[in-house]
Protein 1
Amino acid sequence: MAIVATRALTKRFGAGENAVDGVDIETRDGEFLVLLGPSGSGKTTVLRMIAGLEDPTSGEILIGGRVVNDLTPRERRIAMVFQSYALYPHLTVYENIAFPLKAQGVPKSAHDGKVGWAAGKFGIVHLLARKPRELSGGERQRVALARALVREPQVFLLDEPLSNLDAKLRASAREELQKFQREIGTTAVYVTHDQVEAMALGDRVVIMDKGRVRQVGTPAEVYDDPADTFVATFLGSPPMNLLERDGVVLGFRPEHVRNGAGGSDDARFRFRCELTEYLGSEQLAFGTLEGWEGREVVWRFPSWEPAPPEGSVQEVRVEKTRLRFFDAASGRRRPAAPLP
Amino acid sequence: MSSRARGGRWLGPALVAPAFAYIALLVGLPALLSLFLSVSDARVGSDEIRFVGLANFAEAVRTPSFRAALAHSFLFTLASQLLVIAGATLLALSLKEAFRGRGLVRFLVLLPWVAPISLGAIGWKWLLDSIYSVFNWALAAAHLVDPMNPPMWLGEPRLAMLSVVLVHTWRTLPFATVVLLAGLTSIPRDIPEAAAVDGGGFWRTHFTITLPMIRPILLVALLFGVVFTFTDMTAVYILTRGGPADATQVLPSLAFFTGILGGDLSGGAAISLFLLPLLLAGAIVLLRIARRTEVT
């Protein structure tokens, strides 16, 4: 187990903008840290630099307190699971899992035991004689995880390992991955663009955009207290409602909108409903707030509540403690203010 | 039947026809003719032709020059193809990496293949000349050889064989390099990266991951090289004409000297066809292996 840290990590490809721009992150020992961001945010590049597959333009990478910039991937004692799984197609599952052992010079007599242990952890012992092309997507993913586990690395690096699975399989694989990481207790850095995965798996989430870190925090912190309007709108589906007036941006989550006039602890609005959507477990109403026209507002409520008729105007409220304020120019959070 | 299906019935054969005609007229017909000649007693200047069965083959095997040429053909092919495969693997591995001037190096590597072979071989003939050899001049200047008695690159049996092997290697290296480079670039980038993270060093990754993955294409390159080398006489013909004293004579050049220059058409045809069954069998085996080891 080890702590992974980056200091002012920067990567520039060619003469363009920095793909990764001064990133400082630090895991805790045994933590599951998720790097979350849209495509092109630099999260995969950060992971590849930690793995040693990409040289930083500047900055430092530390694993277990030691600067590893000049170490080869092999010397960093990390294991990585690739998005494509990168299984060796001409080797059997057994040979795939045994490859890191061979490469590390583990005596051959120990291979059977270790391969069996790693395969057992992921329930793939019956697949050991097969070639990767004879496996389903889910089975390949388990083989890739077993291959990463077998050498008992200091750190696990995972690059969108669930993105090639179908939606149903992904949910169960996510759950297994979480149980597995808790059991092994090895520090893991996990890259994804899927916020549900990030929220479900991460002890903490690092939110990245355009090569920079926008916020680091627990899933609840980044969701409830976004550091800026990017994080506020990147997380949540539908995202946080943002309304602007006099240089201040007011934000609140769609699920925090309530029906009725409310009391002194509530901010009151009049919601003009333009469209409703029934989604099974919940409903969405799209419209505008009177006096705040110009920006669409989404209201989320349970499917058993009656939906406002389209074209109607309703009294709605949001608890004042649920309101978030941002600076319109910079997008950064600012202290709570009286409603403008 | 739809018009598309009707078009499909004639379009395919029409597109294949020119290639088929080309192969039938320029490869098939001469091959059949030489097959016919090899079992006859045809000679230049005689209009009588009789069927003699396998007599020409039996006669060829009896002559010492044929047996020597057979041995030389194997030596020439094995040595040059070993060098080609090793060299092409090294070149392909280094040309796969990005570095400054890679385009220029790739162009230079391809040059021997693109330039007419006669030009190249004549250049080599001068480089290896007994009097004007620039190699000997350089070696003498470096005090590595006696300037009064320099090595005769094309005049001493062993050196002559070494010279034709090296020139043929120089000539066939680019093709094998390009084929291997294509094979290497077809390996997804993730695979060697996964091997690097898994702790594989250069040699282990090369021999347990890269090489097995490009084995099918490597075998195809080898097959082409072997068949081409067994049937080619350019380097030998231009550099040594099979000399000194048949020391570099290979089957194709012996067939040419016997059949065309010597006028013994049937004997030449028998010599040139001698390896056909062996090469066919070899080709089938190599293609089988290539198909079985297909990895993706």
Protein 2
Amino acid sequence: MNSASLLAGSGTLLYKEVLRFWKVSVQTVAAPVLTAILYLLIFGHVLEDHVKVFGSIGYTSFLIPGLVMMSVLQNAFANSSSSLIQSKITGNLVFLLVAPLSHWAWFLAYVGASVVRGLAVGTGVMLATFWFAPLPFAQPLWVLVFGVAGAALMGALGLIAGLWAEKFDQIAAFQNFIIMPMTFLSGVFYSVGSLPPFWKGVSHLNPFFYMIDGFRYGFFGVSDVSPWTGLVVVGASLLVVCGLCLRLLKIGYKIRH
Amino acid sequence: MPTISFQHVGKTYSGAHGAVKALDDVSFDIEPGEFFGLLGPNGAGKTTLISILAGLARASSGTVRVLGHDVVTDYAQARRSLGIVPQELVFDPFFSVREALRIQGGYFGVRADARANDAWIDELLAHLGLSDKADANMRQLSGGMKRRVLVALALVHRPPVIVLDEPTAGVDVELRQTLWQFIARLNKEGHTVLLTTHYLEEAEALCGRIAMLKQGRVVALDRTSALLAGTASTMLRFKMDAALPASLAGQSRVTGRIVQITAHDAHEVETILGVLRNAGCQPEDLEIGRADLEDVFIEIMNGPPRAIGPVKVAA
């Protein structure tokens, strides 16, 4: 099968997935932006005068990129996982299953739509929080690289969760017991460098830490670890998750019986 | 080359209570332009066979081809040739009817954004009585209208083969007539149609050839007229209060007081009347008429395995 056949129909599925979340954008874009603003208002108000990070960066400035990236990651995961589980449970996945779409077409469309939603929410959070503190954008290319790679990784992870889950409860459990703790313990609200050695070591095992840290490097030009180390870890994680996702799609895991 | 070819298709599901054989060595071909019926009681394997054809399920053994394309190794070409109307009344609540049709066409290579397919979409909507619902959200449609949209979705990429899995289950008479007129027209224009239905009068009226499945095996396969002629061709219909003699139970249908018994010829009719007389039964309003496909179906399902009519096996 040539590459054109592998990708046939993928553009339409991407269009449909983007249209799907855009039609309910109050819920899928505006609500997470509001949540991020609330985090910023509360934590920024409490800690702005007490905490300086990386020597001279104010806490609110430090927090904004973390919140942006957290929103990108959580919404990228939510997009693919919720779309797929809804289609499975309501039965309309049959329209995709009978279509001549390759596993690559499924993968690129679902992950692509997750990246679009993640970046849309991330941009929304950035625009809404722009007024709260200055952001220098020291290395914008790193912002883009970690933003897109992180969203793609979470979109692929959401696709795996959507394939695996048979009920909405299972997706909620995946989000509440895996995604949420790994995000919160990745340095969104604090610098991992400030942790005791044991917890610092534990944080370095969390791929989410490298995504947040690398993303933040793009704004301030300083980070807990080198962005190149972060890129290697995030890139390797992306390859593993995408490889597993493509394999599951190819065998029709839990969707073709 | 047959339009659809099932060769030695088997399907075994493994569950908590062990393996369940849903299909057992099913082989038959459907020729170009045929209107073919696939009949059988619930659990006979009809939907499993359709699912394997459509790529929703994978056969445990055997091969299925559509216009020569294997549904597993050459699935893209096979699926482009098929328009599947699923049994379940499913829809995507995010989209209008027209959006859903454009998107579905796009999956098959018709550009969804270019609106290039809109003339055909408008024609489909008109034929299915949905023109005024084109911009309505799927959630706003009645069950019958959602069923029509399912048909339109299956046809949006102009497939040469149409597969309808119980398309008229639970829909009103008007829709059934509209739907069958449209499908019959498409069949006349050269489309091959594979139909599964529980409405045997529909199968009798529409299908040129019929296969009957029972417990995952093909138990009858022939032209509809041959099936009707080759089995019980006479039917006794009467009303009776008393219980039917046990010897007649296997070939009869009882609905309240109404009893219908199938017979092959006049001699058998006499025998049945004799059995009733000897049992002291007093049939009222006795009528003798031609057996329909439902009688044939009951006889085949209740009877022993039959020699199957001509089955084309690809070389």
Protein 3
Amino acid sequence: MSRKDEILKSFLNHELLETKYELKKTDLPSTVREALNSDNPIIKAIALIVEGLNGNIPVTDSVLRNQVTQFLNEAL
Amino acid sequence: MIIRKIEIENYLCYYDTNTFELSEGLNIILGENGEGKTKFFEAVDWLFTGENRELDMLVSAKKLDETEIGDSFRIRVSMSVEQYNEKSIITKSFLAKKEKANECSTSSFMIEGIEENNSGERNQVDGSVLLDRIFPFQIRKYSMFKGEAELNIFESDSALANLINLFSEAKHYDKYSEKGAFLKEKAEKAVEDSSKLDKKNEALYKKIEGEIFFLKNEKNKYQIHLNSTDEEIRKIEGNLQLAESHVSNADALETLNKRIKKIEERISNQNCSIDENYTTCLFDENWILVNFEPFHKEFAEKVTAHSKRQRELQSDFDKQKGIKEGEKKAKAELLNNAVPLPIGIPSKAHMEEMLNDEICKVCNREAKKGSAPYEFMMKRLKYYLESQVVEEDEQEKDELLFKFDYTNRLENLSISHEDNLKNLRLIRTKIKELFEFNDDRKKDIEELNEQLDKEKAERERILGNSSIVEEKLIDVLKNYNAWQRDLKIRNQEQVDYDAKLKNIETELRVRREEKDKIDTSSANSFLIKTRNILRDIETVFKDTKEKKFDEFIEKLQTKSNNFFKKINIDAFTGTIVFTRRNKINRIIVEVELQEDGRTFYKPNQSLLTSMHISILFAISELASEIKEENFPMIFDAPTSSFGENKTAQFLNLIFETENQKILLIKDFLHTDKTTKNLSIKNEFETVRRNRAFWAKLERPFDPNNLKTINTQVITL
């Protein structure tokens, strides 16, 4: 498992995703690639950030913000 | 990685080539102070970090002395290592050229690297790159320690950050926490801007924002207060614990000192009350008159006789002078020719008293009014009263028998002495009493001095048992009581600040909820939803980072305690506890020893050393896990507080740990008092080790002449 997948997994295991977003552990994606294709806004938003920070092409703060907010604005 | 061999050539006391063939387990290098142990450590450190400067300071004086002017020789430290079954040699060296006696120039500084693969092929590579590859500098930081003080790596605030960067996953989560906060703030700002477009709630919104801003500042302020109070409490608790080891003595000492002071005061008072100023008493207190009574008696008899004689003469004179004065005749009659008493005796007052009482108190008989004795007394009084009226002319005319009434004065003196006799008789008693009083006081003082000596002896005993000097012991008690008071105050402050912070947080939550309500009714809904998700993401990032951080700390703590249990030579039953503390803008880790959940603030040096070494072994194990290999650890005099027995125990325990260890110690050597010969004690035979060396100066040598200094390396 790559580092970014490990990091994503650590985030998705946070209890808030289960308690507030009612996500079951078994339904959680195990890779960033999978998470980027998720229908769930919080999963995809986290995946976008992980990809932005630990992906092959690091992004600047403003690019990261644009990517995340744009996605969320569209998704919500 | 295993260091197989270290060679030191012409480096300070290491004249010519000296080789340490090391084992992969425990290597012990023995050496007396000043015979080359630390120079070994410094040589290795120079190999790892030394730069091309002040090289002439590293040259062997003996080698330089033996070299002809104009000739050169090499100074070299070399290390052969084995890693993944491949051998590498890293050598740092330079040339020294003798320019004149005791002076040299240096050149050709270099660090060479040689790699040798499984088939024995050797390749020359950049020594610095090779060194960093096989023994990364971050790992070296936790591999070499000089003295006990250096063992406490957590002295430095940056230690934790360094460890996390090296060995923990937590380092990858830092940036997420940071970016999560950034994204949330931007989303909050977007919502606020949108809400502010709605003028309906403008004033209320502004007011809430102001309140939130104020509450945030208050929260920070109280958090700072709380942090500093927490720190203060820890400091006071530490001080109290240190003081507690002395305080029972200090308590006893204070009681004793009070008693001693009281006794000394009593002695001083007794001394003051002793009056031995007998010469003064002789005159001021009339002691000189102690035997005056017989003299007075004689004097009084003489005065009486004299007075009687004087009165006889006067009487005769009066008779002769004439009987013309009725009163005188009457007097003569009254007295039946007896010699009359002097005028004024008995006194006017006594006379009047007797007349009033109608009793003659001279003869103790009744003298009823009208009776002869009564009339007699009346006449005597009248005569006296008339005698007091001066009739100048008459007096002038009268011829007196005794012009000056000296007899009367003598009589008065005698009477006065008689009156004073009672007091004089008391002088003897007073003298006796004073002497007795002084003797009693002297006895008391003697007893008090005996008591004082006993109390002082007790104080000596207490001080003898105490590890600190008397003044300090007294200070300890003074401070102890002050610290106790401080602690009470600080604990109350802590409770108050906690309560205040909770109140602020509640208020802050209420305000935020109010603000959120306005946002919900005023801002764009997608902005609100975005913000809410980013708030949650920030929480997830922050919590995960802290979790990773805590996991690392827990791992380090578990490993440290495993080693601590093994090498704990003081049989201390407590545990090493890593405590995360939030400082302003950063997190630090404090390492404590706890026993039964109570922090052990001031452990002794050997316990502290075993704790630090345990942590270092734990770090080394972490490094092994992360890098999937072991790294050597080199300690110069790490156990100087242990003493020989403890050192032996310690060595036997760390013998079992996996890493390669090189320990430089000064124990197990014996100097013969007469021959001054050094030898290794038999006790060293019982010390478990894989290899041992003895770094020993070649004898004879002159400690003041470096040219005679040459450390020989003896493999034991």
Protein 4
Amino acid sequence: MDSYIFYGLAIALLAVSFFKDKKKTKTALKKAWRAFENILPEFLTVIFLVGFLLAVLNTETISKIIGAESGWIGVVLAAVIGSVTLIPGFVAFPTAAILLENGAGYTQIAAFLSTLMMVGVITLPVEMKYFGKKISIIRNVLAFFFSFAVAAIIGMVVM
Amino acid sequence: MKKLIKRYRVFIIVFLAMIILVLVNRPLGTKAFTITGNSILEMLLVIPPIFVLLGLLDIWVPRETMIKYMGEGSGLKGIILSIIIGSAAAGPLYGAFPVAAVFMKKGVKFMNILIFIGAWSTTKIPMFLFEITALGSRFAISRLLIDIPGIIIIALILSKTVSREEVKILYENAKAMD
């Protein structure tokens, strides 16, 4: 839904820009295309890899591994699964709700959601292209461990 | 042509792997292709306007303006702006990286870029509403309250671990991207 806002905004600003300066607008569009084409191979690889992974893993398998009784091992597994998968948010939250209904624990789900959003093992090649190896790896490692803090606190607050 | 194949070689390998999956296990392969198709659709919904907006930003907003609001010495104003821009965004984390590249080109402070990446990854406003409906406000609000200091701490640690030269190389690299 919010993607339409982006489209609307882009079209509106593009119109204003075109009205003000045709040549500049053309340069802007050229720059946009070059920036997009520059990252396209990495994008495509990531998207196909995700399709592959999600086809192999399914909700049942996941909720078996990260049930409420799975304890810290379950939390670690949840964090790992979240790190290596790439699910859009509007799919992730309802999926998390389904997993909770099917017996997953809150702590485990919090760890899963947190690493899902902050850690991206699969998107690492894209990230490295912009931020270099060192920063990308440190950022992902920090975000991974931070997710345990998130999980622990949510496990205490939400019961 | 040779250059093109070289750039896309990893993608070609993954694509071939999926075709093999279809041949070996048809239902699983079809499922993989369906999920991939949906992701591509999602990408088409999110990515093109981001790049158009980036192109426009690059052309119309002068470097001086960006530096003033988000560059070195922008202080708390820069931090808050980075969180707001990151949180207002839509789409998966990989959409944030090209934005970061333009920010680098425009002289935004590295710490603020890291905060922006953190905010984009986890405190998105549209997603927050989604999270409340799916998992309840207690869950969503607790997560948000832990995440904001977390993002800033991670950004701080990261910016302390890299040297000025390393940051400079990244900024040069971003300049060379178009």
